[in-house]
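Lab notebook, bench 4. The sequencing result for the construct came back, and we need a structural model before the next group meeting so we can plan mutations. Quick request posted to the team channel:

Model the 3D structure of this chain.
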Amino acid sequence: MGWQNLPVSDQVEAADWIRERLHPFAKDVGSVVPTGFAAYARIFHPASIAGRPDVEVRWSDVAALSGKKVHAEMQFHSIAPPANDPEPRIYEPHLGAMSERQAAALVSLLSKHTTTPNACCLCLWEGYGYLHAGGMAPLVAATPPLARVRVGIRRIQLKWFRPQPPSEDGPRVMLPGRNYILFQAPISEALGWADGPNLWWPDDHAWCVASEIDFPYTYAGGSQDLIDAIVKDPAIEALPATDTDGISYASDTLNS
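Done. Here's the predicted structure in token form:
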């Protein structure tokens, strides 16, 4: 799974509804995810511990460690312990993409809140270096992750390759401040991406998910039932948000 297995779509007009519902670039949450949904959630990408990259650290745990307040507009730099603090050393969350565990849980929820789970738009920011001539694409396993199982007493040997970048002069979804390569596929194809998808939605526009490339968190807009389910899911650390919440470095006024 991932963009390297999907053909690029030229149906970029599928994003016109998003452009019409976005606030000006870099203003607030409505600049990242379309306005007009009944509710919104902010999903916090997990931090990690030095030497334990497999352990996901919740922002609420980091805030508790630092004696800071948990709220919808908190910024990681405002709640993180000082860099010279003793162990455990906390590493910052990944920018622009959720963890695999979060993404899998979110896809499971999203698929239940759309009438078109097999018809979705998945957008990848065009600026990743490996998408351009001379850029080094990440190695990708030719065998899907689910096939990495023990067979008898031996393991399946994976073959690795570097995916071919999409054409640099191909069609793009052009939104304020960001351009994207568009893929159209079932929602299940949103899993397994090294970066992104950065912007995705179903054909019925029941929800929209946006992982801005510079942010260690993701926004989702949809029905109140969907947002309630996201906030309650134990695999997803999230809080209710609004489309007017701040998104700047200084937005966390409670932990300044």
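The longest strand covers residues 178-185.
Will bring this to the meeting.
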